[in-house]
């Protein structure tokens, strides 16, 4: 029972982590409607690969070192901001040149991976929440609600089941989200340009914010 609860809790957490709007999902959306499910999935795989690296980094203490060095943190913010603005420009350029004519082979994996590994907020997640997930322990989820429910749902942190569920939830999102967009795009011919514009706006917005935060961190 505890194993199943841990697995499901990890999956729910992975979905909650992957689903919110942001630069990664903007890249996944753009790649999906421009080049199909395979390209959108590869973009999601790039972001998930970065999470795997951060998980290993958290285990080895590398993530903590990055967080303690403001110069390095500010540098990552600056690089991430520039990359987001560059990819936003790329989305607009593809729109102008004919969204489908930009080429069948996308670079979604590289885009999402580079954005993820230069994202200090993703590093911060693995330094805080991620460390809690990796630290062996037991969380009685329903115990705070009622003594009668104590022991009903127990999640084991630091267990392989929790991590498998976490990345399983992320995998479910990066598989289903591109598929949903591709199906919707086939029914709405105007969806692709709209997604391109929205992706560009999201990336540009986060890019400006990252650059502002980098300047604040460094100066």
Main attributes of the structure:
two-stranded antiparallel ribbon; 219 residues; mainly alpha
Architecture overview:
The structure is a single chain. With 219 residues, the chain is mainly alpha-helical. It has one domain. It contains 10 helices and 2 strands; from the N terminus they run H-H-H-H-H-H-H-H-E-E-H-H. Helix 2 crosses helix 9.
Mean pLDDT reading: 79
- Total count of helical runs of at least 4 residues: 10
Beta content comes to under 5%
Helix content: over 70%
Overall tally of domains: 1
Which structural category do the helix and sheet elements fall into?
mainly alpha
Query: What's the overall geometry?
Result: globular
Number of strands: 2
Radius of gyration: 19 Å
For the termini, the CA-CA separation is 52 Å
**Most strands sheet:** 2 strands, antiparallel
Unreliable runs, pLDDT <50, ≥5 residues?
none
Quick overview:
The chain has 219 residues and is mostly helical. The chain has ten helices and two strands; from the N terminus they run H-H-H-H-H-H-H-H-E-E-H-H.
List the helices and strands and how they pair.
Layout (H helix, E strand, L loop, with lengths): L1 H17 L4 H13 L1 H24 L1 H7 L1 H27 L11 H10 L2 H8 L1 H6 L2 E4 L13 E4 L2 H28 L3 H28 L1
Antiparallel strand pairs: 1-2
Helix pairs in contact: 1-9, 2-3, 2-6, 2-9, 2-10, 3-6, 3-7, 3-9, 4-7, 5-6, 5-10
């Amino acid at each position: 029972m505890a194993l199943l609860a841990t697995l499901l809790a990890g999956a729910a957490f992975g979905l909650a982590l992957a689903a919110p709007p942001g630069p990664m999902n903007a890249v996944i959306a753009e790649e999906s409607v421009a080049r199909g499910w395979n390209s959108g999935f590869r973009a999601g795989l790039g972001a998930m690969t970065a999470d795997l690296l951060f998980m290993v980094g958290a285990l080895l203490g590398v993530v903590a070192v990055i967080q303690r060095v403001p110069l390095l943190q500010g540098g990552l913010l600056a690089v991430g901001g520039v990359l987001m603005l560059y990819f936003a420009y790329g989305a607009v350029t593809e729109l102008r040149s004919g969204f489908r004519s930009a080429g069948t082979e996308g670079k979604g994996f590289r885009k999402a991976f580079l954005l993820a590994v230069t994202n200090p907020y993703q590093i911060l997640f693995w330094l805080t929440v991620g460390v809690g997930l990796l630290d062996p322990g037991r969380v009685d989820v329903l115990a705070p609600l009622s003594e009668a429910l104590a022991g009903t749902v127990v999640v084991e942190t630091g267990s392989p089941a929790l991590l498998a569920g976490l990345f399983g939830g992320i995998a479910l999102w990066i598989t289903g989200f591109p598929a949903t967009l591709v199906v919707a795009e086939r029914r709405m011919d105007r969806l692709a340009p709209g997604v391109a514009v929205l992706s560009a706006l999201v990336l540009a917005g986060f890019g400006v914010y990252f650059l502002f935060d980098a300047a604040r961190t460094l100066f």
